[in-house]
Design a protein that fits this description.
The complex is a heterodimer of chains A (679) and B (101).
Chain A (H helix, E strand, L loop, with lengths): L2 H29 L3 H20 L3 H18 L7 H22 L11 H14 L3 H9 L13 E9 L10 H8 L4 E8 L17 E8 L3 H7 L7 E7 L9 H18 L8 H4 L7 H28 L2 H24 L1 E3 L1 H18 L3 E6 L4 E3 H22 L3 H6 L6 E10 L2 E8 L6 H10 L11 H6 L22 H10 L3 E7 L3 E9 L4 E9 L2 E6 L3 E6 L10 E4 L2 E7 H4 L11 E7 L2 E7 L1 E9 L13 E6 L5 E5 L1 H9 L8 H10 L3
Parallel strand pairs in A: 6-8, 13-21, 16-18
Antiparallel strand pairs in A: 1-3, 1-4, 2-3, 5-7, 8-9, 9-11, 10-11, 12-13, 12-19, 14-17, 15-16, 17-18, 20-21
Helix pairs in contact in A: 1-2, 1-4, 1-9, 1-13, 2-3, 3-4, 3-5, 4-5, 11-12, 13-14, 14-18
Chain B lengths: L10 E3 L6 H16 L3 E6 L8 H16 L5 E3 L3 H9 L7 E3 L3
The chains are: A alpha+beta (679), B alpha/beta (101).
């Protein structure tokens, strides 16, 4: 591996480090600068500087050096983390992000010069943090300088220490060697590797399980460092690599070694060096998303092939074959589940970016707004996470701009001047719920209704529930904002948010209390690719609904009459849809029919079908463009027999059942479904 | 050792120096106390003057137990030597610290 090949790894790492720095700085701004946070930012800056030095990226090295020096002064109490300094540092990270992106975009690394904005920033940083210009200036004006410019012969070393388990029993304490190091140099960074520590039950307390990675700065030669570990030579593996060697061409081999060591660290740790020790313990491997997608595709094919094998096995009536086939399908199911969890990521990463957005927007608006995040550890499919980001940004901005009242109004209403925007996520029966809420003024129901009537979206005498009124905001072309600010107009773009969510097979709902705030609730399916489905039949054609939405199946009592669109399920009113009618089948009904009760959020619906076929694994194939406008169907899947089954869009069906008037609009669906069933 | 509900759980107590000489005993006691519902979120180090690698390992195990329970291990009355060692290993941020009056 040469340096160029390792560059993408550096870029990923740099992005992460910068994100962590930003998060830390935002935390400082909000809660004041505590030692831990400043230390964490310092460490990130320092790691970034070291890594950039390895690649000879001098613009980054010299810039981070000034930030690092400033942070170090804060750490040692020589200057305080003022609001000005924090804001400057945030600008600084922005600058670094721009530089990193330029490198990522193939910008010529050697020709990269300090942009003027960077110079200005540096100058301001130096003034605010009172960083003496000679130390920092030297680095800035002499870009090829090593990351540690203090003494000419000083060098930075990465010392990797892995002790053998017996070292403690042999009367040696690894700690004392590390302490000894500090007598002839400075430990800049140290990581304790705890991955070998077994769970408590299996722990032998007299064994040493810890490893250490140390960044050490000294004027002494390598031999001196080696000598420090002489007594323990037999009991440990020792690796010593000089940092920053990549800058000089004559040291090519060593540079390669260093790069390898570094990239290995990155690959093994996921989040190297930054943050505290917990980052090292999370062993992760970076895998290209394309490879994962390919794997999921293959597993999809596997499931389809498996289903057909099952079918053949059951037809062949060979006990051995059936048994083997069912064992196989169980394994396929497990493989599917674990492959899908590979794609699951925590939503926290997306959420945490909102700290910055909320800060910036709040400044623009001149409002005091805090962001509160809960449920950050909720996992959902990576594709979903990526695509939900933009709608969330829109909703958060909306909430801040229009939801939250100006401070004076808030005081009049007896609310705290600092407003709150909340992001929350949780799992609920096979779907993920993401909520954006604010404690602002709420939505004016009358105004929404008046506007909707004016726009001809609803009839003047329509009787609508609160939920239905608020849903009008998301109709295309609806806007109640009399003044539209540059940020957003409430309603403007809400239709885009809605269609984005619906593209992900999700739904969106608004709750609002006048004077108390608004909550927008987005409900999304857990995954987009493969689901556990429940198969049923109407008039010879198969249909599938996601299994986790099925509540129960009941037999339709003979002779029960269907007056209206509801029937009585153990004393509760249940709206129902007859698929037979929905898809305009004119053949006679079978003697017995069944009802599948499905649930989406708070809504329940009965689907009347001819027969129940039971569970299956369904690989969701998207419908072609021709059918994209169909309501009530979200995709198709291939059955073991090779036949096509349509996957029903439960949210859309629920909506149809609760708005019977809109059924007429769906003639396209009915025409389409006949085309579908003959694919 | 009695087990109470969450609020009354006992702090984990290490009663002597956390060095390799005591490590095996302390590990057994640790297993025992955690089984008896002692709180890994509060670790009483009043009687611990010295600590070495073996002791650090035990503290890391306690830290992980506290994390697994959704909290942070808080070290009560940690001696200067203990703090210095954790600082040297950059592990201070893994714990909280508190002194009892």
């Amino acid at each position: 591996m040469n340096i160029d090949e390792a560059l993408p790894t550096f870029i990923t790492e740099a992005r992460e480090l910068l994100r962590e720095m930003e998060a830390g700085l935002l935390a400082c701004e909000q809660n004041g600068a505590d030692t831990d946070t400043v230390n964490a930012i310092f460490r990130s800056a320092h790691t970034l500087k070291g890594a950039a030095g390895l690649f000879g990226l001098d613009p980054i090295v010299s810039f981070t050096h000034v930030m690092e020096t400033a942070l170090d002064r804060v750490r040692s109490g020589k200057c305080t983390m003022t609001e000005d300094l924090t804001a400057l540092m945030i600008e600084g990270t922005d600058h670094l992000v721009a530089v990193v992106e330029e490198i990522a975009g193939g910008g010529n690394v050697q020709a990269l010069s300090m942009q003027s904005s960077g110079e200005q920033l540096l100058a301001r940083l130096r003034v605010v943090a009172d960083v003496s210009t000679d130390a920092a200036g030297k680095t800035a004006s002499k870009p090829a300088a090593d990351a540690a410019p203090a003494a000419p012969s000083e060098a930075r070393w990465r010392i990797s220490l892995r002790f053998k388990p017996d070292v403690l029993r042999n009367g040696m304490d690894p700690l004392s060697f590390i302490r000894y190091l500090t007598t002839f140099g400075e430990i800049e960074e140290l990581q304790v590797l705890t991955d070998k520590v077994p769970p408590l039950d299996a722990l032998d307390a007299e064994c040493c399980y810890l490893g250490y990675e140390i960044d050490f700065r000294t004027t002494e030669k390598r031999a001196r460092i080696e000598a420090a570990f002489e007594f323990v030579r037999e009991d440990c593996e020792l690796g010593i690599v000089q940092h920053g060697a990549a800058a000089s061409a004559s040291n090519a081999e060593q540079a390669n070694k260093a790069a390898r060591a570094d990239s290995k660290l990155v690959a093994a740790d996921g989040k190297p060096a930054a943050g505290d020790a917990k980052n090292i313990e999370k062993r992760t491997i970076r895998v290209e998303a394309d490879k994962l997608d390919r794997l999921i595709d293959l597993i999809g094919e596997l499931i389809v092939a498996g289903a057909s094998t099952n079918l053949i096995a059951s037809r062949a009536k060979l006990a051995d074959l059936s048994e083997s086939a069912s064992r196989l399908s169980r394994l396929v199911e497990e493989v599917r589940d674990s492959a899908l969890t590979l794609r699951m990521v925590q939503i926290g990463g997306t959420f945490s970016r909102f700290h910055r957005i909320v800060r910036d927007v709040a400044r623009d608006l001149g409002k005091q707004i805090d962001l509160e995040i809960t449920g950050a550890e909720t996992e959902l499919d990576k594709t979903v996470v990526e695509r939900i980001n933009d709608p969330l940004v829109h909703l958060v901005r909306n909430a801040m701009d229009h939801g939250i009242e100006p401070a004076e109004v808030r005081e009049q209403r007896g609310k705290p001047a600092r407003a709150k925007v909340r992001l929350n996520a949780y799992h609920d029966s096979g779907s993920v719920v993401i909520e954006v809420s604010d404690d602002g003024g709420g939505i004016n129901k009358e105004r929404v209704l008046a506007k909707a009537i004016e726009r001809g979206l609803v009839a003047a005498d329509a009787v609508l529930s609160d939920k239905e009124v608020f849903a009008l905001i998301m109709e295309p072309g609806f806007s109640t904002a009399s003044v539209i600010s540059n940020l957003s107009g409430r309603g403007v773009g809400m239709d885009v948010v809605k269609s984005n969510v619906e593209e992900l097979r999700g739904s969106i709902e608004i709750q609002s209390q006048p004077g108390a705030g608004t909550t927008v609730q987005i409900r999304l399916p857990l995954t987009l690719a493969i689901i556990d489905g429940f198969q049923m039949r109407v008039d010879g054609a198969s249909y599938v609904v996601p299994l986790n939405m099925v509540e129960e199946c009941v037999e339709l009592p003979e002779g029960s009459s269907f007056v209206g669109d509801y029937f009585d399920l153990r004393g509760k009113v249940l709206p129902f849809l007859r698929l037979r009618e929905l898809f305009e089948s004119d053949r006679p009904r079978p003697a017995r029919e069944s009802v599948v009760v499905v649930r989406w959020g708070s809504e329940r619906l009965g689907l009347v079908v001819d027969a129940l076929d039971g569970e299956l694994q369904a690989v969701i194939k998207p419908l072609g463009k021709m059918f994209a406008r169909l309501r009530g169907i979200s995709g198709s899947t291939i059955l073991g027999s090779g036949a096509v089954a349509l996957i029903l869009d439960v949210p859309a069906l629920c909506q149809m059942a609760s708005h019977p008037g809109r059924k007429q609009k769906n003639s396209a669906l009915i025409e389409g479904s006949q085309t579908c069933s003959v694919i | 050792v009695t087990t109470g509900n969450g609020a009354e759980r006992q702090a984990l107590c290490f009663a002597e120096d956390m060095t390799v000489y005591n490590a095996a005993t302390q590990k057994e006691q640790l297993v025992e106390r955690l089984r008896n519902n002692a709180d890994p979120g509060r670790v009483d180090l009043k009687q611990v003057a010295e600590i070495d690698t073996a002791g650090v390992q035990l503290l890391l195990v306690v830290r992980d137990a506290a994390r697994a329970a959704g909290g942070t291990a808080c070290l009560l009355d940690a001696s200067p030597a203990v703090r210095e060692t954790l600082r040297l290993l950059r592990l201070e941020s893994s714990f909280e610290f508190a002194n009892t009056p």
